[in-house]
Structure formats: C-alpha cells, structure tokens
Sequence to fold (470 residues):
Amino acid sequence: MPAAKTARAPKTSYCCTECGWSSPKWLGQCRECRAWGTLEETAAGSQAVGAAALAASPARPAAPALPIGQVSASQARARSTGVGELDRVLGGGIVPGAVVLLAGEPGVGKSTLLLDVAATCAAVSREQGHGPVLYVTGEESASQVRLRAERIDAIDPALLLAAETELGALLGHVEAASPSLLVVDSVQTIASAQVEGSAGGVTQVRAVAGALIAVAKERGIPVLLVGHVTKDGGIAGPRVLEHLVDVVAQFEGDRHGRLRLLRAVKNRYGPTDEVGCFDLGERGIVGLADPSGLFLSAARSQVPGTCATVTLEGRRPMPVEVQALVAASGGGSPRRTTSGVDHSRVAMALAVLSARMRVDTTASDVYVSTVGGARAVEPATDLAVAIAIVSAARDLPAPPGLIAVGEVGLTGEVRATVGVQRRLAEAARLGFDRAIVPLPGSEELREVAGMQVLPVSHVGEAMGAALPQG
Fold:
C-alpha cells in the first residue's frame, strides 16, 4: 500500500512592518525601504485560488445608475471646521464621510492640533445642533489628554474622550455616541482581535484603516487619523493606506521654532498646493492668516547684511528676511554656515560673486540665515542671498522697503522665476515699495500700486540698484 502522505507544515513568510514588502526568508534589512530589523514572521495563506472562487455572479444593485447631472452633490459639501488654516488646506472644510490622514514627526504638534480642532468643531456642532465630537486616544491616557486640553483651552461639553486600543471597542463608542466627527490618535496604536499581528504592523494597520473608512462612508462621519512617520519622513505602514484615505496631510516644522506648516500631499476634494500656517506656543496652537510677523524683524531698517524676499509655499506667498554676516576668519579654512537656506546654493552664490563681482570672501567666515525659522530654499531667493552677502561684505545697508526676487545663474545672469506677480502683491501689502525682479518676464507684470519695480538682467545691475552708495 502507498505510504500515507504527511501533512505539510504551513509555509511562513517575513513581512516588513514599515513598507509591507515580503520575503520567503528572514533578512536583517528590508530590500524595499532599506529599514533594519523590521521583518516579522507571518503565516502565508494558500495562494492557489480556483477559477470558481474568482467567478462572481451578478447581483441586483441597491440603486440604479443615474445620469451624472441627476446625482445630488449636497452630501459632499464641505463643512467648516472652525479652524481657518485647516479649512484652507482641506479646500474649504471637511466633507462628511471623508477620511483625513495627518502625518508628522514625533513632537511636531499633531495631537495638539487635532485636539484644538476637535474642541472647535465640538463648539460649532453644538451650536448647529449636530452630534458630538469623539476623540479616541491610543497613545495616552484620558487624564493626560484632559491635562493638555486644559492647557490649550480645549474643554467643551460636546467633546467626548475615550482611551482605547482595540478596534471593536472603538467601533462600539462610535455606535453609542453617533459623533459628527471622529478623531483617532493614532491609527498605528489600534489593533483588531480578529487579525493576527501586533498593533502597528502592516496587516493590523490595513485592517483598522479599512474598518474606519467603511464606518466613515456608511455613516457619513468625517474621520481624522494621526499617522506616524518613518526615519526618512514617509508615512509608516503599508503604502495602500495612503491610497485608501481621501486626504493625506503632512504637518511639519522645526521643533525648536514656533512655526508649523500643514500641507496636503493628496486631496480628493481640493487643491494640493495650499499651505496652512500655525504658531505653536505654550498656550496651544493658533492659525496664522498672516505669518509675516514671524519672518520679518528688521527688513525695513538700514542694517548691513539684510535683504527681504518673498517665497512661495504652494500658492501662498511667504515674506522672508535673509541675514548674512561676513567676518574675518580666525585661521585655517573659512567657515560657511547656513540656516534656513540651501547650503549648496549659498556656496554657488559666493562663487558667482567672487568671479563676476570681485567680492572676495575666501579669507572670511560667511554666515547666512533666515529669521524666525523660515525656509528659503527655492532658487528665487538667490538674488536676496547675494545682496545680503555683498551688503555685509561692504558694510552697506540696503534701502528700507526693498525686496529682491530672482534666480542667479553661474554666468551672473538673473533668471526668470514663477509667481512674481503674487510675490509683488504680498510685498506691497506689507508696505514694501521697491522690488528687484528678473528682466525676463517683467514685461508681463501688471502694475502694483505703491510698488516701484526694477527689472535687472545681471547680478551687477541688481547690486547697483540695491546698494547705490557702493
């Protein structure tokens, strides 16, 4: 008689908890995202699926298909959250049933922002007769969140708070409260008892996100999810998470500064080039409709080594003051220190000034920085950096009320840049009355009231217009 076949042990595979890549054997480093020590053993189910299992019989639809002109759009109208900067990024407000994933580095202020948004939405919902706002925390206890809410004045009777890490209990809170907004902090801390793996794993994150998205669509509840990020700044968990949600927003900023920027990476209901500005202080987080006060300190005073410019964050013009200091070197190699600007572009500007303007800084330490932790890394800030360096090297202050916009090439030419008209309008609103802009494209600029526009084609012309006394 033939020998009885022995039952084969179930095959196992190893899955990366960061990106979801799988391997038949354990590896120390993920071949996809290059993370170390992230492969965990998972049971591999049968991959053979018969044709009968793939076949699906047609079923009667719940509602017939309608001409697109007859489909009601009232349920997809955005509703204001009460936080103007968040509404700007979301495209006017949050849509019922939308799922928003907010990602950011630890300590940047994600929980503080969403707690403030939850309290503001709770007050608005209470006034309009809507349901309460449910805030579910999986990273802190309810008492810890209560203390933060007292500090930032986010106490409202319509704001419900629950500390849960189990998906079933979270859905039970949603069933009992029928909230008008659900906030989950964070999606990586929630786990389902029906799914294998620990909280934060690829399988768990996919299952939890899928369940929350299903609840949001079924009940028309907008959901705000907090997401962790990996070492390289990407959103932790499977990439499919970003495809499932409706909006992916990045919350970023220097933890040593006050400014925080919120930008949409993906938005099904609005633009992705809007930026929201927030000021994070001891009393909480406040939206900044006009953040110029953080970035301009002495732009209008006659101090050598300063020049103002206007950068573009998405479509939003942001005034920035660039400061430079040229000091005698103490010996050895001169230092080149930058903060808030692109180090390589500053080095290029120093080379261009040395070759085209005879501004020799080879024996001097050069420091270039921005005010208030702003970032001025786009090429359009080259001209302002060059003017600040020459002003500091020659001890000649630029006239008050001057801004400079333009990219500087290696031959010394000033190249055209985008959005000059929006930059000039923002500068004029802040009281600047003179602007140095690239000559290419200047013929298409409209006149700005109270603004004298000086087109230049070479960095030498720009220095003559910015530092006429030198």
Observations:
- The chain has a mean pLDDT of 86.
- The first helix runs from residue 51 to 54.
- The chain is about 25% helix and 25% strand.
